[in-house]
Write a structure and sequence with these properties.
Elements (H helix, E strand, L loop, with lengths): L1 H21 L3 H10 L2 H59 L1
Amino acid sequence: MKRKKRSLFLIGVILTLFVLQQFHLLGPVIVQIENLPWWGIMVVLGILFSGYQAFTLSRKDKAIDDKWVEEQGNVYIKRMEMEKAKRQAKETTDAIH
């Protein structure tokens, strides 16, 4: 699934660049990028990398949180089953006496 999304993203980027090139919109963008100072390009790349890292880490954090919530839910269910078994055992002993 991950490879499929990555492939679709790459195809989308290539298609977008092709359309921009066909409508002669890519040339002015390249000229503007060439006129930026090197530190401006580094700032833009840093912002993009920071956004990517934030997105990736938030997805990993959500997966960890979901796993923890599921584990705690299982613990709760086990406690409820144990309590139910205790009640049933108590009711059967009370019914006998």
